[in-house]
Write a structure and sequence with these properties.
7 strands, 7-stranded antiparallel β-sheet, 12% strand, alpha+beta, 8 helices
């Protein structure tokens, strides 16, 4: 979010994170909410480092969000490698799905398929990995993608920490995953996704 609402969006994210950290500490949903990270703003990517420095890492059953290596410092951004043959213009991964990775392997395997940030227009979007590969072979084909948010601040405010979260799960992982419920244990009947349960407990999503 590079417009006039960007500071307000960052403030909302900061407040939501404080609430979620408290609830996680009290109730133990099993999610990861990292501490603030020392990242410097990058003029070419308004709002991006500003968001990630509020938490450093967010992770639940379905997604992991960590800052891309390219934004860890101005020097890293200046030294980034741009793939001239990339049909999507070398977008940045703003997060990855981890649903496809067995929990016991998530420490060894960084992540599954990425959610991307377009570094030109700053949209956050999802594209099926097979469609991305297809574009390399057919670069003149119109890409099939779903724009999730117009900027990274809106993405985290509304789709990771807000009411758009169920739709994000449905878009990336499918409606079956989004609506999956626990069949046994103390939380039987509740959503299987621990991040969604945390958001519901906080009154941030349904």
């Amino acid at each position: 979010m590079s417009g006039p609402d960007a500071p307000a969006g960052l403030d909302r994210i900061r407040e939501k994170l404080a609430l979620l950290r408290r609830l996680e500490a009290e109730q133990g949903f099993g999610v990861v909410i990292g501490e603030p990270a020392p990242l410097e703003p990058l003029p070419e990517l308004p709002g991006v480092a500003e968001v990630y420095r509020l938490f450093g890492r967010l992770e639940g059953d379905n997604f992991r969000f960590t800052p891309p290596d390219e934004i860890l410092s101005p020097a890293a951004w200046a030294a980034r490698t741009v793939n001239e043959s990339d049909p999507m213009g070398s977008p940045l991964p703003v997060g990855h799905e981890v649903h496809s990775i067995p929990p016991g392997l998530r420490g060894d395997i960084k992540a599954g398929a990425p959610i991307y940030l377009d570094t030109e227009d700053l949209d956050v979007y999802w594209m099926e990995p097979d469609d991305y590969v297809f574009l390399y072979e057919h670069p003149d084909t119109e890409p099939e993608l779903t724009v999730i948010a117009p900027d990274v601040v809106t993405f985290f405010d509304e789709h990771v920490l807000g009411p758009g979260y169920p739709a994000l799960v449905g878009t990336v992982l499918g409606p079956g995953v989004a609506e999956r419920r626990l069949r046994k244990g103390p939380h039987t009947g509740e959503y299987a996704d621990n991040w969604r349960r945390l958001l519901i407990a906080a009154g941030l999503s349904s």
